[in-house]
Design brief:
- With 286 residues, this protein is an alpha+beta fold.
- Helix content is 28%, strand content 25%.
- It contains 3 helices and 12 strands.
- A 5-stranded mixed beta sheet has the order 7-8-9-11-10, with no helix packed on it. A 4-stranded antiparallel beta sheet has the order 3-4-5-6, with no helix packed on it. It has a 3-stranded antiparallel beta sheet with strand order 1-2-12, with no helix packed on it.
- β7 and β8 form a beta hairpin.
- The N and C termini lie far apart (90 Å).
- Keywords: Membrane, Signal, Transmembrane, Transmembrane helix.
- InterPro entries: Autophagy-rel_prot_27.
- It is found in: Membrane.
- One of its GO terms (cellular component) is Golgi membrane.
- It holds the Pfam family ATG27.
């Protein structure tokens, strides 16, 4: 009676390994593509260069990036007051908004603490609040599409209003906003300078491998995943507890010799051709 052969891995286990590998490849490709990240991260490619922004990332002089360490920025113009925070919801440890109609941003007792931008306007002698932006409804874009180094615009939305904050690149100073403008019914805009508005990394054209580099990384990822999954399968399910657990080990060992065999004949043919050319000359007596 023949001994039973090795049992194949359970289908759920094999399927899980395949899904994990596919997810890893997807993450690698997404990272290589240079797409945008979170609500305060942006990566764009212009003219063969990669520009990456991370507004909430620390800088030498600002450990919280573009975020206000007070928990909010405040700008007053005439009878209107604008509060906002970038990359987070506002937090008030002092000087909280005192205005009516704050139900959709924390309520009257915690006004301003559940949104990212709020404005107060004096209407009929009363200060009335309007939510103009929330962290969940935000978008990051370049100030100037043809000049990524100029900075970025953070635009936040509420059901009826919006706020656009232009963060201009200035590597030396952080100049907080002191004014804002209103367009349309309820669309606010303000500007300030900050080191976080500068691109974090710039890869010059020609210094990277471009699409070839992405393809090379993808092939390496697929190859590494194949070897890893194959080795796990052979180790745990076939009981091979040695270097033989590596799939197609003979092929990998012989690969350098195969490459050498492919390259050496071309070199030999070129040498033989040169020797034949020299051998064609014969001495002639005069």
């Amino acid at each position: 009676m023949l001994a039973p052969g090795p049992r194949p891995p359970p289908r759920p286990v094999l399927l899980l390994l395949i899904l994990l590998f596919a997810a890893a490849c997807s993450c690698g490709l997404a990272g290589a593509g240079g797409g945008g990240g979170g609500s305060c991260e942006l990566s764009v490619t212009r003219g063969g260069a990669l520009y990456s922004f991370a507004l909430a990332g620390p800088t030498p002089a600002h450990r919280h990036g573009v975020l206000s360490e007070d928990g909010f920025y405040k700008v007053a113009v005439n009878d209107s007051i604008l509060w906002f925070q970038l990359c987070d919801e506002m937090l008030f440890n002092f000087d909280p908004p005192m205005c009516l109609n704050c139900e959709d941003c924390g309520g009257p007792l915690r006004c301003g603490t559940q949104c990212s931008a709020l404005v107060s306007n004096n209407v009929g002698g009363y200060d009335v609040c309007t939510t103009i932006g929330s962290l969940s409804e935000s978008h990051l874009s370049l100030i100037d599409e043809s000049n990524p180094q100029k900075g970025v615009v953070v635009k936040m939305f509420s059901p009826k209003c919006s706020i656009s904050v232009s963060v201009i690149c200035d590597s030396t100073v952080a100049q907080v906003p002191d004014k804002f403008v209103v367009s349309g019914r309820c669309d606010y805009a303000t500007t300030f300078k900050h080191p976080s508005g500068c691109a974090r990394s710039i890869s010059a054209s020609g210094s990277g491998w471009g699409w070839f580099g992405t393809l090379f990384k993808t092939i390496l990822s697929l190859l590494g995943g194949y070897i890893l999954i194959g080795a796990v399968y052979r180790y745990y399910f076939l009981g091979i507890h040695s270097v033989e657990a590596i799939p197609n080990l003979d092929f990998w060992i012989s690969l350098p010799q195969r490459i050498k065999t492919m390259l050496v004949p071309a070199t030999r043919n070129r040498v033989n051709y040169n020797r034949d050319g020299l051998g064609a000359y014969v001495s002639v007596s005069h």
